[in-house]
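input
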Amino acid sequence: MNRKDFLKVLGLTSLSISMNSLKDLTHYAEELPVAEKTPLLFLGHGSPMNAIEENQFVEGFRNTAKTFSKPKAIICISAHWLTRGTKVTAMPNPRTIHDFGGFPKELFEVQYPAKGSPELAQQTKETLLPTEVELDDKWGLDHGAWSVLKHLYPEADVPVIQMSIDYYKPASYHFELAQKLQSLREKGILIVGSGNIIHNLSLVDFRNINTDNYGYDWAIEARELTNKYLLDGDFNALVEYQKLPKAVQLAVPTPDHYLPLIYILGLKTSKETLSLFNDKLVAGSLSMTSVKIS
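output
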């Protein structure tokens, strides 16, 4: 299939998608080479400053990336792209979004020039049917994505698309939606969730921001409880987190940073093992706990 015909199949020209085009797209997906099955990552991204600082957490990101082969592409579910409905970025060259304020100029100068993948975006859209997914050409890569991916792949040599979080759906919806992405892992696509399991910015203790593994009592309790459920494989309890004790409610006052974890848990198979890294508390009310499933 030549480029012109392929673009027609993807719906990126003004022509409507015909039944023959949909057959062509299915054929394209089937022709993708089978690759080493990728792991799953949930990365506690913490402060945007982790993008430019050298610390134990970014070392943890780098070390984890060394434990598996470089993927063909990445789908990132970031806490910082919340929408009504689900979207995926479909531009060939996503912009680096500096979606924060009050940080040094050096941070705003960071660019992460990873290519996008309109082809993967369209395949993701088809994979998630019958859920309607919008192909987006405006967003790009927010700091939930690039601030961690730049440590995994500093050369920005792996194509990246972002998938938004439908903020109007419960955790159970996201857990089930994620399962439809399973087939992409067989094609060498790495799926990354980026957020924080414990994320209560209103209670940050700035006096202890540099104290190693410092957390309030409720944060310590929440970490112990969520870690237990993670390691025991009790994902139903984590999906129904709103039924968990008050400590967890303080840890997850809003679901934005928590839901990327739910996507990763939804993709775990029974034969895979879950492990934790960067499992520390920061500034009283944040955790950097990260998850690898393989």
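quick obs: Residues 45 and 148 are 6 Å apart (CA to CA).
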